[in-house]
Amino acid sequence: MDLATVLLLHKSSFIVGALCFFYMRWRSREPGLELLAVGDCFLAFASTLAGMGEQGSLPYEIWTFGSFSVGVTGYALMAVGTIRLSGRRRELSDWLLVTAALALSIVVGMTHWYLDNQTRAAIFNANASMFLFISACAISVDFLGDRLPGRIGLAASLMAAMMFSALIVLGVAFPEYGPIAPRNAFFMLIICHFSVALFVVVLVQERAEAKLSRLANTDALTGIPNRQNFLACLPRQLRQGDGFIMMDIDHFKSVNDRHGHEIGDAVLVGVAQTIAAAAGRELLLARLGGEEFALFLRDQTEETLVATADQIRRKIKTLAFDVGAGTVTPTVSAGVALWSDECDATKLRDRADQALYRAKRAGRDRVETYAAESVAALS
């Protein structure tokens, strides 16, 4: 493949990337995409300058220094964009990468290293390799907080691009030690740039899908899981030690009637957050609707189940909401039921609900356990 074709493919990889990033930024508003797009535009322009120089359309000094300075800045912008896309954070220190690229351009310009093809190519690709490595590290490290498969493909593409850039440096500086010819490594680098654009799009799409899934499974007011999520997460087969806690805010309708729905919503959010904090990550929790909450626990005894419910009840009782002339101090009633005699999840939840009804009948602000004989008496 001749040099003109390779340069055209090189420029095309950045143009395609820039178009993808601009489009995804318009659709998703994910941070960093605009910098990725601008960085690719810089690199496409640098590749254009190099192509025009190879054809003799520009003076040697102009296209060599122009393509070098614009290209290293483009890679720096890509690195900053990738870091922001990865962690969704904006930090002033990110711009140190761009400052480093500009400083490198100044040094190369003052020393006239750009006039030697081998020196220019080695420095340029060493710079590219460094920025690609930084980008790959950011994508990999942030995987722990954003476990999406697209990150793996993007990190792999960036690491591959870094490797081929390093092989170009090795092939240019030490031709006798290079495992592949610089031109072949350059061609593989072009493929990696297409792959980076592809996996950025995949990552943004996966984030959008994950957000929709969270919205579908989260109660919009309280931020805790909703009924749909709770029922979907319940195990198909229950076992010894499984238990339900059903909770209901006492006299919640009167709170809404006396103080308005804004205060009522504040009470709901406060109670939900208190339950979530007490439950931790190991328990299934949901707002089933209205002022009713449910928890599912494993490996319990009746004593531990009651103790957990009572601990949450006492924590909620410490809440206070200012209503101008006074305060609202919510309380909850709770019913608990422990698995027995092969009942399914629906029946066990109904038993906890029956125990909750007993707690309300017995004066509220208390915890009651399911007992078949007590339910029969109430009915």
Automatic annotation (TrEMBL):
Residues annotated as domain GGDEF: 240-372
Keywords of the record: Membrane, Transmembrane, Transmembrane helix
TM region positions: 6-26, 33-50, 62-83, 95-115, 121-145, 152-174, 186-204
Catalytically driven reaction(s): 2 GTP = 3',3'-c-di-GMP + 2 diphosphate
Keyword Thylakoid: no
Keyword presence, Ribonucleoprotein: no
Protein name as catalogued: diguanylate cyclase
Organism in which the protein naturally occurs: Rhizobium lentis
